[in-house]
Structure formats: C-alpha cells, structure tokens
Amino acid sequence: MSYAVKEIFLTLQGEGMQAGRRAVFLRLAGCNLWTGREKDRANADCTFCDTDFVGLDGENGGRYEAEALAAKVEELWREGEGRLVVVTGGEPLLQVDAALIDALHARGFEIAVETNGTIQAPPGLDWICVSPKGSTNVVQRSGDELKLVWPQPEIDPVELSGWDFDHFLIQPMDCADADAARDAAIDFVMRNPRWKLSLQTHKLLGLP
C-alpha cells in the first residue's frame, strides 16, 4: 500500500498533554468529515477545521510506501533520543495500518495519532488522541487523551466524561470569536476540574 502524504516536518507538539515535545509531524491527506474545499465547508460534518490536508503538495509531500515513509520520518528527526512521530490529518486512520506502524516502530519511533474517533484505531499505536467533531458517531471511545474543541453545541462534555481516557482536555476553537471561545473554555474547566485547558501553543509561537 502507498500512503498519500500532505506534508512531513520537524517541530514541537503544540497541543495536548505532550505540548512542547519535539516531534516529526506526518500529515496524511484526506478526511472523512470534510473534503477540505471551502465550497463544501458549510455542509461538512466538521465545519471549523483550520488545517490544509488536501493534496500532496506540502513539505515532503507525495506518495510513499511504508519503509520509504518511515525512512523519511527518521531523516527529518536527524538525531537524539525520544523519537516521536505524530500522525495527523485530515483523518489519519483512513490510512494508518500495521505495515506503517511496524515500519515506524522498527526505527525506534513512538507513534501518536490525532483522530476524530470515527474509525477504530488499529493495534500498536503508542498514543491515541481523539478529538470528537459535531454530531458524528465516535467509535474510538478509549485512548490517552480526549481533546474537545470548544464550543461545540452538538456535544455534551458530561457524556464524554464517561469514556475511557487518561486525560480530558478542552481546547478553545480558533474562530472569528476566539476570545469568547477561550473564555468559555476557561469557564468550563473552572467548573469541571477533571478537565484541563489545552492551547494551540504552536500558533502562539509561530511554529508550523
């Protein structure tokens, strides 16, 4: 199988419980909740996505076989311990499979995925972050962190609190009324101390 890759780059993880950690970001093309085209946004299952996951034209983008893709990830890591690759999208679980997981593990990488949860995660992943979107059917209800972009009127966080995750995070939506979204997220965490606030620190720092 070949993998459709939008971009691959070395940066710092900007969100969630691993924020600040050096990581290679492997962004796979495509999503099952939105085409990525603005003309389709209003009718998409996820209307607030802030990521370009369409095509293969990003940094190091293209089509790769599993071994070649793992080799490119290793090349970008360069040197040092604590190897981490964050596989994201779009929706990475449309493409992530055993062959890719094995190839990355063989090169010593811890594999984290960021998924909308509508596709069951394959075995072997080291860190699963689920970010539910709207009224979609989330089937992956366990993992390491649940990261809820807020506000989303269609989602009841109280219901999510019963899912099997080690960490529960609220992240303000990057939208036209970002200040109100931030205030709403802070208010929610203050009233629900099981949850923690997650910020998009890579945007604050000007990182990709």
Please specify the SSE layout and strand pairing.
Blueprint (H helix, E strand, L loop, with lengths): L1 E11 L9 E7 L33 E4 H12 L6 E5 L9 H9 L3 E6 L11 E4 L11 E9 L6 H4 L3 E9 L5 H14 L3 E3 L3 H5 L3
Parallel strand pairs: 2-4, 4-5, 5-6, 6-7, 7-8, 8-9
Antiparallel strand pairs: 1-2, 1-3
Helix pairs in contact: 1-2
What does this structure look like?
With 208 residues, this protein is α/β, with parallel strands linked by helices. It has a single domain, classed as Aldolase class I (TIM Barrel). It contains five helices and nine strands; from the N terminus they run βββαβαβββαβαβα. The protein has a nine-stranded mixed beta sheet with strand order 3-1-2-4-5-6-7-8-9. Helix 1 packs parallel to helix 2. The longest helix is centred in the last third of the chain and has 14 residues, at 178-191. It starts with a strand and ends with a helix. The mean pLDDT is 96.
